[in-house]
Amino acid sequence: MENKSLKQIIDNRLEKLKKIREMGIEPYAYSFNCSHSTSDITEELIDKRVCLAGRIMALRKMGKASFSHIQDQHGKIQFYIARDDVGEENYNLFKLTDIGDFVGIEGKVFKTKTDALTIKVSSLTMLSKNIKPIPDVKEKDGEKFNMVSDKEFRYRKRYLDMIINPETKENYVKRSKIVNSIRNFLNEHDYIEVETPVLQPIYGGANAKPFKTYHNALDQEFFLRIATELYLKQLIVGGFEKVYELSKDFRNEGIDRSHNPEFTMLEFYQAYSDYNFMMEFVEEMFKRALSDLNMKAIEWDGHKIDFSKKFARKTMDQLIKEHTDCDIDLTNHSEVFDACKKLNLDIEEDDSLASLIDEIMRRKVEPNLIQPTYVINHPVEISPLAKVKRDGNNNFTERFELFIAGMEFANGFSELNDPIDQRKRFEDQSMKKDSGDEEAFPIDENFLEAIEIGMPPTAGVGIGIDRLVMLLIDSRWIRDAIIFPTLKSLK
RNA sequence: GCCUCCGUAGCUCAAUGGUAGAGCAGGGGCCUUUUAAGCCCUUGGUUGUAGGUUCGAGUCCUUCCGGGGGUACCA
User: Fold this and answer.
1) Cα(A165)–Cα(A94) distance, integer angstroms
2) Residue A235: closest CA among A268, A206, A188, A278
3) Eight-class DSSP state of A134
4) How far apart are the first and last CA of chain A?
5) Fold held by A169-311+372-480
6) I need a surface site. Which of A8, A156, A243, A384 has the fewest CB within 10 A?
7) A77-99: b or e for each residue (b if 16 or more CB lie within 10 Å)?
8) Which nucleotide is nearest, taking the CA of residue A9 and each C1'?
9) Residues 345-364 of chain A: which lie with beta carbon within 7 Å of strand B?
10) CATH superfamily of domain region A4-134
């Protein structure tokens, strides 16, 4: 509970609230007509009459005339209010204001003797009285004092973070632009946006632990989706040729600086195309997002990333050779195992070939993929929904993952549309699940039936939107890309 | 999950194991061009929680809660 210090501030403000009402003024107004926002105020407006609204962020009261700053969505502006300009009653109202109040001001733009653009108030309106104090952050020459340093505070009370630290909002403005750019890009290519179930009786489409929930009336367990893949492909079966969904997916896994239990995923599928087409398409999509944000190159966590060149495409054996000097046959278990030993990787004797390859990639290759690079042709064991390579090599699939700055941004493949093969792959997953693999997915008869009805050749891609936002706002923390990140409740 | 660090007033921070303090915010007073406004006075604390060691704990030990960083799982 609140202790005495805070209670005393709140009581004091409640007292002011009462006084304002006694003056016949409603401290929670219904509307206010603004003529400008703070960022509109320039020298051209000097001597012009303006109306502005915002939150009081600083107060310098001195007897019969005072200065204050208000902050709105676009910035801050100083106002000057003098008793002789606004009258006794309005000035008394001003004296009852606190940092955190919303006020509306009407007045003329002028410059103080220290050349600060300021509004000379002719009338002040109370719009919303603050009751609980906001941290009082002082600022001088762009340097902030008394800044809230506690990250937890910023995540739990994002609105306070945004008030105290308005730059925070820029990340989310950018996020909105990125999502718009992607939507526009897909819509311009005649894609149809759809919404598939969040509550799924069987989860699938990715390897991840799901959240469980329960529907009372149906008396049935449901899972929150870990991916939209299996539903979107049913729509390709049904006759849509280009579909996408921007979805919140949910994975019941650990939280760290690049993982949040709920996150935004884009998945899109295009009939009659393959992974080669999709690599071109995704590259174009990324370059479009950059240009829509007026960005040419990216500086991310100290890395300069060049988007002007064509994205590299490299197979796993090429990349392993490049980054480890191991020239190995990725179908030969003992060769790969020996390479892992040589590279001092933490592996077990009975690890599968695919997981050994995965380990080399994760430890030795992926962190070094700074410039945009497609890693292609993954082992079939870790790609249960992808077609095997068309050259007859059944060990590898037509799959790609896009890496930038050591992080994965996209995952796509030529979608498996052979119903017999697909059923076998599901059975493999099911066996893994039975033998304790918590991330393997169960057999989805509904989906398999759809594939038996027939799915045209199709390519599909998934892109983690939060990570893309991280890249474009130059942050290593997914919590900077998500407005309300998942936190443990306080007890 | 594991390792590690942190938690003192609304905010930022002090306090060899020895009376919990300051600045800002809040309250009162003065103040009609200030801008981290200023000057004088002043309120505000079960030091995250529960226990332990000790004559004495904000400080040392343990539990729990929350968080940061790392690591694992995760693609």
Assistant:
1) 25
2) A268
3) P
4) 12
5) BirA Bifunctional Protein; domain 2 (3.30.930)
6) A8
7) bbbbbebebbeeebbebbebbbb
8) B26
9) 358, 361-362
10) Nucleic acid-binding proteins (2.40.50.140)
User: How deeply is A188 buried, as exposed, middle or buried, from its count of CB atoms within 10 A (0-12, 13-18, 19+)?
Assistant: exposed
d(CA A25, CA A279): 63
Q: For chain A, state the CA radius of gyration.
A: 29
Query: Nearest nt (C1') to A152 (CA)?
Result: B67
pLDDT (tens digit, 0 to 9) for every residue of chain A, 491 residues total? 346 788 999 999 999 999 999 999 999 999 999 999 999 999 999 999 999 999 999 999 999 999 999 999 999 999 999 999 999 999 999 999 999 999 999 999 999 999 999 999 999 999 999 999 999 888 888 888 888 878 888 898 999 999 999 989 999 999 999 999 999 999 999 999 999 999 999 999 998 989 999 999 999 999 999 999 999 999 999 999 999 999 999 999 989 989 999 999 999 999 999 999 999 999 999 999 999 999 988 888 788 899 999 999 999 999 999 999 899 999 999 999 999 988 888 888 888 888 899 999 999 999 999 999 999 999 999 999 999 999 989 999 999 999 999 999 999 999 999 999 999 999 999 998 888 888 888 999 999 999 999 999 999 999 999 999 999 999 989 999 999 999 988 87
- For residue A113, count CB atoms less than 10 angstroms from its CB and return exposed for 0-12, middle for 13-18, buried for 19 or more: exposed
Domain ranges in chain A are 4-134, 169-311+372-480
Q: In angstroms, how far is B53 C1' from A491 CA?
A: 29
Tokens coding A46: 């000097």
Work out if A301's Cβ lies within 7 angstroms of strand B. Answer: no
**Separation in Å: B44 C1' and A92 CA:** 27
The ipTM value here is 0.91
Residues near A373 by beta carbon (within 8 Å), at least 6 away in sequence: A311, A312, A313, A314, A402, A403, A404
Identical fold for domains A4-134 and A169-311+372-480, yes or no, is: no
Whether A158 sits with its Cβ under 7 A from any strand B atom: the answer reads no
Residue A343 · residue A326 · CB < 8 Å:
yes
Residue A339: φ, ψ to 5°: -60, -40
